[in-house]
Amino acid sequence: METKDINTSDKNHKPIRAGHGRKHGMYYGLPRGGREYRKRGKPMKAPAEEVEANQEDEAQPVQTPSTACFPDKPGAFDPLGISSKYAICGMPFNADTYRGSSCFGCAYCEANCRKFMPASQSLKVGNCHAAERVFRRVLIDKQEDPTKILDVCISQNLSIHLGAMGDPFQPAEAYFHSTREFLALCSDYDRHVVISTKSASFYGAEIDPSRVSIQMSVSNVLNRRDIEPNVADIRQRVRLFNELKDAGVRVGIRIQPFLPGLSGVNILELFKGADHYVIEGLKLVPQNAEHIQQMLKTLGLPRESFKAIGGHLCLRPELRLELYKPLIAYCESNNLSYSIADNDLRYLGNNNCCCGDALVHKSTSFHSTAMIAKYGVNYTKEQLLYEINESGFAQCHAAYLAASNRQHFGATVEEILCAKYDVRQSPASPRFFYRG
After folding, report:
1. What is the pLDDT of residue 28?
2. Which domains does the chain have, with CATH numbers?
3. Opening angle at CA 52, ends 51 and 54, nearest 5
4. Which of 144, 273, 319, 335 could be joined to 151 by an S-S link, Cβ 3.0–4.6 Å?
């Protein structure tokens, strides 16, 4: 797949530091202890006018976290990784600057409800020096291993999805600045990054419109503290959205999770002018019965409205499809870019990558959304095999990404995806799609 130019037509756009300080952020404490990768420019100025968000009450800031909330010496990890969902995701090249913390304490968060994995919930901070060593090995020393998916992603300059497992602008960023350091590293190596975040502050990180796109995750506009206790007031997020758009940054709105009774067309109307809209349904962890009951009660949904799909409890596809129809109709009637990110409904949308072609510098060509866009929902195994081989990923080792691969499907990307093509229960198969 050819690289798409994500630069805006206005060449005067410069990198910005948005959402830094009291007027822009949820958390107002001064940063401590961050590692400065290089010096930054001046913060963006506050907007001249307040943003209306259909609410009469004043925006209420969320409680500032004390630095005592964070360990002096948290665990460290390599920020770079590959998603096991490479068959259905066009951006398998992932990065996280934080892992293990509850971020904003959202009631629906998988990290909060996986009680059977308590050790994984302690805060860990990404080691950007480890990421730099990988970039240097592949790009400077030219020691690419063609059997490693990560190396091929780097050499082909695929967009990096930052925030795959943890929000890169969670409260810990005010203290550790790992995200700011990672973005500086990506800038030095000319990497493009798509950031997923719920935050209304970037804590001084540089947002370069030519190298960074933003996915703002929004589930409701009502400031429901029983569901999202530490997420910024919706008006702060609208303000940041408008600032980013004015600065030439590509911004998408990701309605994830879609919450029945709370998520709706009002989100699209409030964030008018987004470059892309994505909808993805609520997923519950089946091992946590207490969390399931809590969410069912909060949303007023019966247990029978959910079914097991791919290791999660998901709202039944026929119900999701009915709930999504008003948003789909709104997007189509207004000629808007949109995608459905649910694995069984990926044929709905008008992009090659569910995160939005406008936001993504370069994605793979063999994931399910791209295959549907090019060949239709009934694409053949021969067409899939052709795209895999053309992509340069065919012989990459991928069995380590999922235990089931080692047991049933093979070792390489080509072997695994060709084997899964005929498995109806696999999201990698076109037979998995819900057709109504």
Report:
1. 25
2. 67-269 (3.80.30), 365-436 (no CATH)
3. 155
4. 144
